[in-house]
Amino acid sequence: MKNVDLKRLKDFITDSVSNPELLKKDVSVEVRWNMNDNESQMYSVVVYPLGEKELNIDQVDFLGGGGRSPNPIQYCLVGLASCFLSTFAIVCKELNLNVKSLSVVARNRMNLSLPLGLDNEKVSEGVEFEIIVDSEDEKEMFEQAKNIAIGRCPAVWCMQNSVPVNARIHFS
Hints:
Elements lengths: L5 H13 L13 E2 L8 E7 L2 E7 L14 H23 L6 E10 L13 E11 L4 H14 L1 H7 L12
Antiparallel strand pairs: 1-2, 2-3, 4-5
Helix pairs in contact: 2-3
């Protein structure tokens, strides 16, 4: 498995055993509403260790947006799929699997009745991952990697467990 620094990961795990506070990470993003009708409805400047990136977000037209940028659910799926894929890749590296290429497709069927105030039906029937692997290693090893990754992935954990949501209003 390429593009996984296993030594750095193992060093972090070793350091975390003696200092469990290292395992707790605060993550935040700010999303701003755009008041310009000719641009995407929202944007966020996401800062990461080696730079920053502006992400534009726009609802689909039937939800009042212009469809000019990926919509919030697409970003949720990208976040979920990338978290799962990186977890899966780490597990493949730990299992010493030889992977030539790797991708995941995330699918979600939504029911918009609740967000539109029409009914109280479940918003989602669930998320499905289709993992596409090019490897000559045994398929059973990838099933094992998949099961381990599902158990370790933070985004999957958040989807499978109740996570409290709090919202506060600040006036400027």
